[in-house]
Design brief:
407 residues, 19 helices
Length: 407
């Protein structure tokens, strides 16, 4: 038995050595080819999607900007959105947060403002991840910068005029600000304000509250976030004629219907497929609580692994469509960092690199495949889910190993 174990270890060491020899000889070529492909796809996709955002006169042109513009204006005009519009699935505070960008403009002006701010948000996101990636050559800088730009989900977000391109850099900057701060009052207040802004879409940002609580800001910061969000809700309510209780019921009913019928690769959709929608709230809360416990247990671990795990959970725990796949950028950066930092003798560095390559390839897949006939739709949905679960498993393993090494 010992001989077999030694033989397997020797073969693994030989394979690891061979992989590193190959990578050392072909690294520059592979990165150049990857950057060329990603740059081409980014140019084609973003060019087409900015055209759709700004100039497409059809329904699909800036479809979500049109919806959000209608909702933000309608809320403050006193229209009963939850009764009249199936698209009214955001909580009341979201309409207050949407108004500065979308609520005071007609649709044509709103889509131009959305395009300008989307460019700024993308540039900010690229800057943040390049700075945090651990890249140390110009080629690696370019490679990391192209990750969000080449993702098909980023293009869909732009063309639809969806929210995540605005939310993600704000969320990431807030968490980095709390990580690097030393409890300064001004930093805390800025972080609270920014995090409240990201709650315009709570299904994206709410899971990251655990990182705020256990890694950055502490209980006081969380309380201030809750108070800020409650204040926005109280400000929004008087613009509607229904009572708060009725609004809450109408909102949850609207959101539940959409969650059961739209999106893919999330808990709500899976439960709807087996006709168990009544489990949705409790299972979502359970997953949220388990994530919180896990982050508490690993709060001293690698910050980017915490971000990557939380992002994957946020993508899977609630209703999301393909544009919210931009969340997977965070585990991609976490994988890149692992692949960069580990000794060349560590097999996990190879696994991280392979997972990153597979994840990038999956995130370049065209969103329209989701709606193609079998087997393309299954390959798209199932393939993405499988890749994300593999990424999650690896990051959980790395966090566990890091924690054991601390003992």
């Amino acid at each position: 038995m010992l001989d077999i174990s030694n033989s397997l270890a020797a073969r693994r060491a030989t394979l690891t050595s061979a992989i590193w020899v190959w990578w050392g000889s072909h690294r520059i070529t592979v990165l150049r080819l990857a950057c060329a492909l990603m740059a081409l796809l980014a140019a084609l996709k973003l060019g087409e999607e900015f055209r759709r955002l700004l100039f497409d006169p059809g329904y699909n042109g800036a479809v979500d900007t049109r919806i959000l513009n209608q909702l933000a204006r309608g809320w403050f005009d006193g229209k009963p959105l939850y009764k009249d519009l199936v698209t009214a699935v955001y909580p009341p505070a979201s309409y207050v947060l949407l108004w500065p960008l979308l609520g005071w403009l007609e649709f044509t002006s709103a889509r131009w403002l959305w395009a300008i701010t989307s460019v700024a948000a993308l540039a900010w996101l690229v800057y943040l991840i390049v700075q945090e990636s651990g890249a140390d050559t110009r080629l690696e800088y370019i490679f990391v910068a192209l990750l969000p730009l080449s993702m098909n989900a980023t293009g869909v977000t732009i063309g639809n005029g969806q929210l995540i391109v605005h939310i993600l850099p704000t969320l990431l900057f807030t968490l980095l600000l709390l990580r690097d701060s030393r409890g300064e009052r001004r930093v805390r207040l800025l972080a609270v304000s920014l995090f409240v802004l990201t709650l315009v879409k709570p299904t994206i940002s709410a899971p990251f509250l655990w990182i705020v609580l256990f890694v950055g800001g502490g209980l006081l910061t969380i309380l201030l976030v809750i108070l800020g969000y409650a204040g926005l809700t109280l400000f929004a309510l008087p613009f509607q004629t229904s009572t708060p209780a009725v609004l809450a019921q109408e909102w949850t009913e609207r959101a539940a219907v959409l969650a059961a019928t739209g999106g893919y690769a999330n808990l709500h959709k899976w439960l709807a497929s087996i006709d168990r929608q009544e489990w949705t709230v409790w299972l979502s809360l359970l997953i949220f609580a388990v994530l919180g416990y896990w982050i508490y247990q690993h709060r001293k671990g690698d910050f980017w692994i915490l971000l990557g795990v939380t992002a994957i959970v946020a993508r899977l725990w609630s209703y999301h469509r393909v544009y919210d796949d931009v969340l997977i950028l965070l585990p991609m950066v976490a994988l890149f960092r692992v692949a960069k930092r580990e000794p060349s003798t560590d097999d996990t560095r190879i696994v991280a690199g392979l997972l990153l390559a597979v994840t990038i390839a999956s995130m370049l897949a065209l969103a329209r495949w989701e709606h193609f006939a079998w087997p393309w739709s299954i390959l798209f949905k199932g393939g993405h889910t499988l890749v994300w679960i593999m990424d999650l498993g690896f990051l959980l393993f790395r966090a566990h190993r890091d924690k054991k090494a601390e003992v």
